[in-house]
Structure formats: structure tokens, C-alpha cells
Design brief:
Elements lengths: L7 E5 L3 H11 L4 E7 L6 E8 L2 E7 L11 E6 L2 H12 L3 E2 L4 E3 L5 E6 H7 L4 H12 L6 H9 L1
Parallel strand pairs: 1-4, 5-8
Antiparallel strand pairs: 2-3, 3-4, 6-7, 7-8
Helix pairs in contact: 3-5, 4-5
Length: about 150
């Protein structure tokens, strides 16, 4: 008997395959597992893929539903160079938001987060966390060095 599993399904109008190919090209170790054609063979209906080891289903469901920032994909990265690279790649045709959030050209919301933010917020020092939070709230793309400086006061 196979154990239950869970994965996220994202609803696209008709860009599921293009979105999957884009994300797989940007996130190392990610891959498209299988694309399922629509009935009648006109285009793709479902794409099963992994992004950084997490399984997803992308569905071409039509215009009935839209993705919103109420759900986002959060990526934690080690270096500012990684943050900058992914941020700029996903932002092509998209829109920057506050606090490290962006909406890409497919309508998917992302949080691009340097791991230093998580470390600084979890330090146990409430004053430091407050300074880091205040600095983060003023940023669009997160800047790890500026967050570290805020932590030091």
C-alpha cells in the first residue's frame, strides 16, 4: 500500500507548460515529470513537476479562476547573488511587490528570501527582530546586507 502524499496544484488559464518550463530552468534540481495532453490532443491539460524537491501540478483550467497573492511560493536562498538572480528572472514581465514579494508574468506570487532574514528573525532578540522587520517592510527586493546592518542597529 502506498502512503498518502500531498502536492500543490496551481490553476493557469493556458500557460501551465510554459510556466513549468520557466521555473524548472530557474530552480536547480527541478524537473518536469510528465505533461498530460488535453482531451483531443490540443495542448496541455496537466503538468506534473518538482521545484526544489517539492511536487506540483500545474493545470490549464481556463479563465474561470485567477491566482492571487493569498498563496505564494517562498524560496529561501543562501546568498544575495542567488536572491538577485532569481528575483530578476522571475520579475521579467511581472510586478515587484513589497517585502521580497513579486508576481511573475504567469500570475504566480513568489517570496524571494535570503536565509539571513530567517536567522535574524529567529535569534531570540526581540529588539533585533523589530529592527530587521522594520527594514524589511521598507524594501521591495530583500537585501541581506541591509538586513544584517539593521540587526546590528
Amino acid at each position: 500500500m502506498t502512503a498518502p502524499s500531498i502536492q500543490t496544484c496551481l490553476w493557469f488559464d493556458d500557460q501551465a507548460q510554459e510556466a513549468a518550463e520557466t521555473y524548472v530552468s530557474l530552480l536547480p534540481g527541478s524537473k518536469i515529470i510528465h505533461s498530460f495532453p488535453r482531451r483531443g490532443g490540443e495542448g496541455v491539460f496537466l503538468v506534473h513537476l518538482t521545484l526544489l524537491g517539492q511536487r506540483y501540478t500545474f493545470l490549464n483550467g481556463g479563465p474561470q479562476y485567477r491566482l492571487t497573492p493569498a498563496a505564494s511560493l517562498e524560496v529561501h536562498l543562501d546568498t544575495q547573488a542567488e536572491v538577485d538572480l532569481l528575483w530578476h528572472a522571475l520579475l521579467q514581465g511581472g510586478q515587484a511587490q513589497r517585502c521580497g514579494w513579486l508576481v511573475d508574468r504567469f500570475g504566480v506570487s513568489w517570496q524571494i528570501i535570503p536565509r539571513s532574514l530567517l536567522r535574524l528573525m529567529q535569534s531570540g532578540d526581540d529588539a533585533q527582530a523589530g529592527r530587521v522587520t522594520q527594514a524589511m517592510m521598507a524594501m521591495v527586493k530583500l537585501d541581506g546586507a541591509a538586513l544584517e546592518a539593521a540587526a546590528r542597529g
